[in-house]
């Protein structure tokens, strides 16, 4: 662990203690040493006793920086784990993080664009409209047509903070591997590496611009989801300019009810949008906390989502999609044996896993989920039980699906808030069954053929040449194999002769030493000399190159 990591680790503990978060350590005998160490090594006391625990937790995460703020954003959707008072405070991390100075924002925009703001924009508001962990947003108008826009600006000097926390996370990953026997199954390095990549991608707003353009294209003319227009000519690494949208934050339930929004349809569309992005497009919004999701003010009876902040997007391969779809459908059908077999087939668990035992373990965890409304299901407990089950069967964490798992947590949290009676399974099952049917039948085969035929037509004239080349390669390969086998035979013969010479030389040396002790003149020296010469000959013969 580097000195900088130790300093950052100490700072993290210091901030947590200054906000009194040691109250979260249970008063149990098993934690006695931890509490004693806390008083011996750190002399920081709670400096914010006048604030609630939820507010202190929010302020500490905010002070720790973007990595921790994003962690708080995810926790803000877990109403089944935390009290409403804590959730209300953590929800402020979604778009109301303390902003940086608007003058600095203006300077950064002008530096990126290479000129004064007034050349392109008017009515620039120096006060931030919203502020999040990595960037903040200011409003303005395009000078050329008066279009209302928002300008997103990356926080200055944020990269060193992120790198320090990522370095510390790698240290913690090493620590997990050392202290836990099953640490390798968690694949902590891969998980941290994936998280590092997503954070660093977020620092380049050109990535977000391309993501938004693609997502907007995928949902063109969709009644379910609207994505704001991007003004590409004004986008840079640290500056992003988009159309300004007006909507109700998805977490503002009172406003949604006030305009008579169809809450059941809204909740169902949230699930449909997620599965459409994952299975139709293989490209999904992976940061769907309530601060990034709005509901259009128009047509409340036919509600439409508005999605912003596409800095983190997930991509799945065709194999991942099929595996997930088959697993979901098997879960919905309560076919736990199929789930167990899919896990083994995908090599997520060892091939020698006993299917019957794995099936029983999955059934025990998942069966209580069904026949209950969403409000009665504790997904926190389910995930905990599934994790323990996975450990028992040596299941490895799949880093490529970490973002998908996080997004599922967001979807479940949003669904719980919007329409607690939502039947998640009934909503998702028809979609997945249709996807599997479309991608397993004749139509899918014909589509693949349609895609491949132009390539095959292009390659047909090259077939004779490719055939001749392959025959030549096969002949050459056969000659190489014959040469290798010949050399191996020669080497084996040389080794046999060399070992024989070593045996003779060793025998002569032993005889020479024996004669030397008998004092029979110079004969022992001659015998030992001949033995040494034979040993050298054997060594040289064995070392000869066979080329």
From TrEMBL:
Per its UniProt record, what InterPro entries does this chain match? ABC1_dom, UbiB, UbiB_bact, UbiB_kinase
Q: Can you tell me where the transmembrane regions are? A: 497-517, 523-542
Q: Which GO terms describe its biological process?
A: regulation of ubiquinone biosynthetic process; ubiquinone biosynthetic process
A single Gene Ontology CC term: plasma membrane
Asked whether the keyword Membrane is assigned, the reply is yes
Matching CDD domains:
UbiB
Keywords per UniProt: ATP-binding, Cell membrane, Kinase, Membrane, Nucleotide-binding, Transferase, Transmembrane, Transmembrane helix, Ubiquinone, Ubiquinone biosynthesis
Its record classes its membrane topology as: Multi-pass membrane protein
Give the first-level EC class, as a single word. Answer: transferase
> What is the annotated localization of this protein?
Cell membrane
Annotated Gene Ontology MF terms? ATP binding; protein kinase activity
UniProt key word Transmembrane: yes
Where in the numbering of this chain does the ABC1 atypical kinase-like domain appear?
93-343
**Pathway assigned in UniProt:** Cofactor biosynthesis; ubiquinone biosynthesis [regulation]
Read off the Pfam families from this record.
Answer: ABC1
Binding residues annotated for ATP, in chain numbering: 129-137, 152
Which residues are catalytic?
287
Functional description taken from the UniProt entry: Is probably a protein kinase regulator of UbiI activity which is involved in aerobic coenzyme Q (ubiquinone) biosynthesis.
Which family is this protein grouped under?
Belongs to the protein kinase superfamily. ADCK protein kinase family. Belongs to the ABC1 family. UbiB subfamily.
Q: Which PANTHER family match?
A: CHAPERONE-ACTIVITY OF BC1 COMPLEX CABC1 -RELATED, PROTEIN ACTIVITY OF BC1 COMPLEX KINASE 7, CHLOROPLASTIC
Q: What name does the UniProt record give this protein?
A: Probable protein kinase UbiB
Gene name, per UniProt, is ubiB
